[in-house]
Specification:
Elements (H helix, E strand, L loop, with lengths): L7 H20 L5 E2 L3 E3 L10 E3 L6 H5 L8 E5 L12 E11 L9 E5 L16 E2 L2 H11 L7 H4 L4 E8 L2 E9 L5 E8 L4 H15 L5 E5 L1 H9 L3 E11 L1
């Protein structure tokens, strides 16, 4: 898979994904850096990459600069354009960037926003549906997503991030993260527990379009998650590959 001329939707998805990774790393006090070609973190949290390419013209040499001796290194090849197998990497995930036009699906699903217990109220801002600030709400969200050691109250308080909990009869059954780093809404970390994944995706899309009306939704998915995203109205727009060097 290669892409020499990414669409505006792919470019926006890449930019939002980089902003999301930046927000996560900063919330954990992790270092980050950026050149014209590569975003980087020398010590990213679990599930996050050491390098993210920013354009299809990025070379392997630009990606690998400074990685000598780095154990268990992860690279997000944002345009699936690199041959990192020549440098000891193996492809782990082949996925697709996705986008969905604005517009909420039918129905009124039950979803809530998790806020940091330390986040101050903003009286001048319109209320968001069912914002919850109890500490156990964040714990429930991280338990659903498996990101207990990644997502902190500081990230939950980030202005560009919304953590969504999907509920059924008041019980948490799904979760997702929304990010707004590039004038779009990034949709990630979508999980479903004890509920039809299609219902979870519909609720997440409903939340994103209610919170950020008129914005394009973007993300990247693979396998069954990609199938669920497509049923929720997302369209694949370009390839992305995750590489790992043990």
């Amino acid at each position: 898979m290669t892409s020499s001329d990414p669409s505006p939707a792919v470019a926006a998805a890449v930019a939002d994904n980089v902003a999301w990774c930046e927000a996560v790393c900063r919330s954990l006090g992790r270092r980050t850096g950026r050149t014209a070609h590569v975003w980087s973190s020398p010590d990213p949290p679990r599930w996050f990459s050491h390098r993210i390419t920013l354009g299809p013209g990025t070379t392997a040499e630009q990606v690998l600069a400074g990685l000598d001796g780095q154990a268990s290194c992860w690279v997000e090849d944002s345009h699936a354009s690199l041959a990192l197998d020549e440098h000891g990497f193996v492809p782990v995930v082949d996925a697709w960037w996705t986008c969905r036009p604005p517009g909420a699906p039918a129905g009124t699903p039950d979803w809530t926003i998790v806020r940091s217990p330390d986040e101050p109220d903003e009286p001048d801002e319109p209320d968001e549906p069912d914002e919850l600030d109890e500490p156990d709400e964040l714990a429930a969200w991280t338990s659903l997503t498996g990101l207990t050691d990644v997502v902190t109250p500081r990230l939950a308080a980030c202005p560009s991030v919304r953590l969504v909990t999907v509920r059924e009869r008041g019980r948490p059954v799904g979760a997702a993260a929304l990010s707004t780093g590039a004038d779009v809404v990034g949709v990630s970390c979508v999980v479903s527990h004890g509920q039809d994944p299609d219902a979870t995706w519909a609720a997440v899309v409903h939340a994103a379009t209610q919170l950020f009306p008129g914005r394009l939704l973007v993300g990247y998915e693979s396998g069954e998650d990609l199938d669920a995203a497509r049923r929720a109205g997302f369209t694949p727009t370009g390839p992305v590959r995750i590489w790992h060097r043990p």
